[in-house]
């Protein structure tokens, strides 16, 4: 009864707050952002081919579908397990043409969701104009921009990034067409991922895509640096997170940067004169029972900037511009949770002592015999 | 020509390039048939066994498409490397082999005697490398097709002693651990740590101890006959003095005993050419590259080297 009352009341209160215009969950409030989150991948099972019998397909539900409640609730029953994690769609002739003109065999696909609201419990799946009008690009390892199509799939906005050659890819989405209370909102979201494979082309091939932004570059950027190259592939709790905030390509000093974890823990810092700030990634996901070392949680960095430049967009005037950029990334558990260096040292010392003594005794006996 | 001195310098250069090369932008890719561990951050090249194990962990039908092409590219590149240098990758390039040679130098410094296994024992334990090779091929295939747990991913890398040892050379202790998250991880990483312990003990009584178990050597032996670099023996000139056998770090008896076969690159040979250097008979042993002789055994050379060695020991 107590649980029912507390949970229900909080849900009701949140729902009522969403209805009130200008409340904290309003998407155009200063703390509202857009962010990109990856569709969880199925690590546990081998890839299995779809069969004609739908009852057999039921058994191969990707872990993503099972673990993500939003995904589960948004999915029609019959559609369960019919999506394959690795199979690209070949039917889209335009997409095939695009793949060909890029000069890469873009066979692989990184699937992400675009969300909006207040991280981490945003207005996922909300069909407002701000998400549907958001544009997205994929920055390839050779710095070219490839426009992406935003699709609504099972109640959520999806961005599927086809990629081929190895290297670092950056997904950029931008929404800047809306004016609220005389303030133009520029919302940027970044998400980068590293693909294994061949090295990227050194010589950029023919530029077949228009540059995405006015002036070619996003205005507010969060650029992340890594202590070790390996950390780029997988961030873990305990790693250092170094970042630089750029505005118009120049470092932005004293910009507020907030790190938010999936459990809503926050830390706020300001950038220094070089536009840089550093965080230590904390552990946020305390799993019960057996540790799943492959389970990741989403963290988000957010920065803001305000410019008092009046202007108008699509006939609507504004007095100032508000920029907000997010960089989302997955954080995995710290290796030290399941790796023991102490036992390893003990095993090495034990082996050296035992084998060394055995060799010594064997040699002494042989000498005595001789 | 003092081949062993040349070999030492080649090994030293390749060691610096493959272990620290990445620090000064040297990179020759990740498909080398040598134990250049990919877990070293500053590596200048990577061992191909990692990509092979990952590429094999797919369903069989996937090999009909792009995955098959990737696998063929990997195997083709490695085959090309293997054909050119044959097993000299082990004797002249391998950074892990160089570490073992350094341990042998340390053993010489402490005047510790070598030990030799009996013929039957050594024949038995040498077959372990084929078990390792089968393990690193079959386990990834079982992951891709039979639903074996992903904890077995890259099984050989998990049990390879180079993984905990090589990153230590750049002050990185992150790979020196026993994985306690799963039973397969625990078994495999414990084997790796045990092999590290054996490396620090058995290296003082046996030369190139871990090479006898190396699946890379087993893989490279597929190219023994087609390799451009080879070792020839003229059985008519051999007097079976046994110098070559005593000099061989891999303790291959066939060098001494073989009379009929011309090609002496056996399954365990690492083409270090110590046997050619220690042979006193003119033309009995001959190292050739694409049919051209590059280093031949000669009485004159043997005596010169002997005099030099005796002179050096007198000076000491």
Protein topology:
The complex is a heterodimer of chains A (370) and B (316).
Chain A: H1 2-19, E1 33-38, H2 54-57, H3 63-67, H4 69-74, H5 93-101, E2 108-117, H6 129-132, E3 135-139, E4 145-148, E5 150-153, E6 156-163, E7 167-180, E8 183-195, E9 220-225, E10 235-236, E11 240-247, E12 250-251, E13 256-260, E14 266-270, E15 276-280, E16 297-307, E17 311-313, E18 316-318, E19 320-332, E20 339-340, H7 341-369
Parallel strand pairs in A: 8-19, 10-19
Antiparallel strand pairs in A: 1-2, 2-6, 3-4, 3-7, 5-6, 7-8, 9-11, 11-12, 11-15, 13-14, 13-16, 16-19, 17-18
Chain B: H1 3-20, H2 48-56, H3 66-85, H4 88-93, H5 95-109, H6 119-126, H7 128-145, H8 155-159, H9 162-165, E1 178-179, H10 183-202, H11 215-220, E2 229-233, H12 243-247, H13 254-257, H14 274-278, E3 285-289, E4 292-296, H15 299-315
Antiparallel strand pairs in B: 2-3, 3-4
Explain what the structure shows.
The complex is a heterodimer of chains A (370) and B (316). With 370 residues, chain A is of the alpha+beta class. Chain A has seven helices and 20 strands. Chain A has helices at residues 2-19, 54-57, 63-67, 69-74, 93-101, 129-132, 341-369; strands spanning 33-38, 108-117, 135-139, 145-148, 150-153, 156-163, 167-180, 183-195, 220-225, 235-236, 240-247, 250-251, 256-260, 266-270, 276-280, 297-307, 311-313, 316-318, 320-332, 339-340. Chain B has 316 residues and is mainly alpha-helical. Helix content of chain B is 51%, strand content 5%. Chain B contains 15 helices and four strands. The two termini of chain B are 22 Å apart.
């Amino acid at each position: 009864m107590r649980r029912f009352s507390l949970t229900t009341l909080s849900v009701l209160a949140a729902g009522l707050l969403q209805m009130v215009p200008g409340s904290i969950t309003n998407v155009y409030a200063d703390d509202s952002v857009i962010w990109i989150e990856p569709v969880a991948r199925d690590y546990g099972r081998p890839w299995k081919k779809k069969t004609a019998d739908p009852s057999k397909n039921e058994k191969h539900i990707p872990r993503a579908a099972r673990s993500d409640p939003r995904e589960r609730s948004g999915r029609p029953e019959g559609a369960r397990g019919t999506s394959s994690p690795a199979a690209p769609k070949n039917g889209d002739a335009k997409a095939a043409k695009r793949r060909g003109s890029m000069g890469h065999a873009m066979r692989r696909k990184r699937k992400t969701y675009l969300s909006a609201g207040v991280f981490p419990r945003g207005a996922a799946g909300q069909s407002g104009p701000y998400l549907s009008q958001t544009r997205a690009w994929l920055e390839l390892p050779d710095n070219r921009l490839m426009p992406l199509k935003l699709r609504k799939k099972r109640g959520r906005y999806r961005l599927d990034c086809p990629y081929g050659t190895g290297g670092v890819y950056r997904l950029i989405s931008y929404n800047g067409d809306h004016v609220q209370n005389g303030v133009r909102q520029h919302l940027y979201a970044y998400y980068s991922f590293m693909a294994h494979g061949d090295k990227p082309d050194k010589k950029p091939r023919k530029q077949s895509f228009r540059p995405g932004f006015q002036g070619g570059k996003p205005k507010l950027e969060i650029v992340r640096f890594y202590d070790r190259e390996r950390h780029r592939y997988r961030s873990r709790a305990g790693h250092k997170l170094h970042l630089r905030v750029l505005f118009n390509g120049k470092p932005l000093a004293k910009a507020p940067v907030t790190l938010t974890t999936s459990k809503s823990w926050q830390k706020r810092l300001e950038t220094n004169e070089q536009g840089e700030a550093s965080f230590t990634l904390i552990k946020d996901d305390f799993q019960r029972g057996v540790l799943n070392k492959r389970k990741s949680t989403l963290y988000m960095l957010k920065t803001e900037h305000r410019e008092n430049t009046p202007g108008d967009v699509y006939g609507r005037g504004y007095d100032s511009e508000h920029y907000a950029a997010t960089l989302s990334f997955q954080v995995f558990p710290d290796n030290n949770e399941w790796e023991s260096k102490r036992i390893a040292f003990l095993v090495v010392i034990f082996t050296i002592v035992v084998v060394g003594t055995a060799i010594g005794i064997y040699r002494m006996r042989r000498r005595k015999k001789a | 020509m003092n081949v062993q001195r040349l070999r030492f310098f080649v090994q030293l250069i390749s060691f610096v390039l493959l272990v620290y090369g990445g620090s000064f932008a040297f990179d020759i890719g990740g498909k080398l048939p040598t134990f250049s561990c990919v877990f070293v951050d500053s590596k200048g090249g990577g061992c191909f066994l990692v990509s092979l194990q990952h590429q094999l962990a797919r369903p069989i039908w996937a090999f009909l498409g792009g995955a098959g092409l990737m696998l063929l590219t990997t195997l083709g590149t490695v085959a090309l490397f293997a054909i050119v240098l044959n097993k000299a990758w082990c004797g002249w390039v391998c950074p892990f082999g160089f570490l073992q040679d350094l341990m042998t130098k340390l053993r010489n410094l402490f005047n510790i005697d070598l030990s030799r296994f009996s013929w039957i024992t050594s024949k038995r334990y040498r077959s372990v490398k084929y078990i390792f090779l089968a393990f690193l091929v079959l386990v990834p295939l079982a992951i891709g097709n039979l639903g074996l747990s992903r904890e077995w991913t890259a099984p050989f890398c998990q049990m390879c002693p180079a993984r905990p040892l090589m990153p230590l050379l750049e002050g990185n202790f992150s790979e020196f651990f026993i994985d306690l998250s799963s039973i397969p991880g625990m078994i495999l990483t414990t084997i790796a740590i045990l092999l590290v312990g054996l490396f620090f003990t058995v290296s003082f009584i046996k030369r190139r101890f871990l090479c006898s178990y190396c699946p890379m050597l087993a893989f490279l032996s597929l190219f023994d006959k087609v390799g451009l670099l080879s070792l020839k023996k003229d059985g008519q000139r051999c007097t079976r003095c046994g110098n070559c056998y005593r000099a061989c770090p891999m303790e291959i008896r066939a060098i001494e005993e073989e009379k009929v076969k011309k090609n002496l690159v056996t399954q365990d040979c690492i083409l270090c050419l110590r046997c050619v250097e220690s042979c006193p008979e003119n033309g009995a042993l001959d190292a050739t590259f694409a049919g051209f002789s590059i280093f031949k055994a000669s009485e004159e050379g043997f005596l010169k080297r002997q005099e030099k060695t005796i002179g050096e020991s007198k000076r000491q």
